[in-house]
Amino acid sequence: MRWFYIIVAILVFLLMQVALADRIAIGPIAPDFLVLVVAFFALYRGAVLVAIFGFAIGFLADLSNPEFLGLNALTKSILGFTVGKIGSKTVPDNIPFMFVMFMSVTFGHDVVYLLFFHWPHPGSTLAAIFGTALPSSAYTALFGVLIHKLLAMAGTEVAESVGQERQ
Predict the structure, then answer these.
(1) I need a labelling partner for 48 at 20 to 30 A (CA). Which of 14, 23, 105, 166 fits?
(2) Domains and CATH numbers, the chain
């Protein structure tokens, strides 16, 4: 049954990224729901498995941009592994901490992505980091906190089923 919840969660976040992210964007600033799904699973799972999960989610995202095939897979693998290592420890359940965590995760992901995407043009990389990645990571963190609270109010069946599998 836990795999059912995992598949549903992946499909929901993919659908949100495809159908919702551009509609709720503020100019070039849009939430990254794919980063959030990897971060959510990384909080409850081990680092290696979430790195593989991040690779799969990133590869699906890369299919829409074959020129940079593998870049999302790489960055989401790094994200999954890093947050999986950190998330395996006890994570306090308070809004400021969750906001900072989601913002840091998204910003780190975007910095790595932009370094490769704009290589070898450091000026455009810095402009994208401070002009788009920083506000986008804050916007994504708002959605991360909101989704986290909604999952908590719903009884966190997804989080519990994923957390049980980790033990």
Answers:
(1) 14
(2) 2-166 (1.10.1760)
